Amino acid sequence: MKWGNSSKKEEKEDVGKKAYKMAFDYELKYGCCSQCVLTAVKETVGFVTDETIKASHGLSSCGGGLSGTGACGALTGGLMALSCKHGRARNRFGWGRFTQNFKAGNELIERFRKEYGDITCQHLQQQFTDKKGQVRFI
Fold first, then answer.
1. How many CB atoms lie under 10 A from the CB of residue 51?
2. 8 Å CB contact between 76 and 54
3. Is residue 90 part of a domain?
4. How far apart are CA 72 and CA 126, in angstroms?
5. I need a labelling partner for 33 at 20 to 30 A (CA). Which of 39, 63, 97, 122 fits?
6. H-run or E-run covering 65
7. Among 78, 74, 79, residue whose Cα is nearest residue 24
8. What is the C-alpha separation between 73 and 81, in angstroms, rounded?
9. What is the pLDDT of residues 92-131, one digit of tens each?
């Protein structure tokens, strides 16, 4: 189910829940949080391309490049999805900073921090896995 400029709050919430479940299931099956989030957005809402999903691969896996210290891949995938929708295209560099995208990104970061306590992959790995690295369902 795709929605474009729908203003129905319930419909958007349903799509959001569906995308969340898809991304969660993809992560458990395939790994790479950012790619899973972007794929779920593509399959529910649209506007994300396969090239964007591919480009996000390096942002996955413990905060990017298997470092374990950066921002959560799921969050960076969400920020990329927002940028696919609201971000500045190359041919519009001279049109300003497109600050609405930054505002939406900051809102996502704050919602993420409020929900999970932090935005780092390291924090989330500790929160959602046991000592053996197995996913805990909280």
1. 8
2. no
3. yes
4. 12
5. 97
6. none
7. 74
8. 12
9. 999 998 899 999 999 999 999 999 999 998 888 777 776 6
120 phi and psi, to 5 degrees? -85, 145
Structural domain count of the chain: 1
CB atoms within 10 A of CB 109: 15
Alpha helices, DSSP H, located in the chain: 9-30, 33-44, 50-55, 73-86, 99-116, 121-128
Q: Which amino acid does the sequence have at 42?
A: K
Residue 111: phi, psi to the nearest 5? -65, -40
Which residues form the domain of 78? 9-128
Tell me the whole-structure pTM to 2 decimals: 0.83
pLDDT tens digits, one per residue of 41-75 = 999 999 999 999 999 998 876 667 767 778 999 99
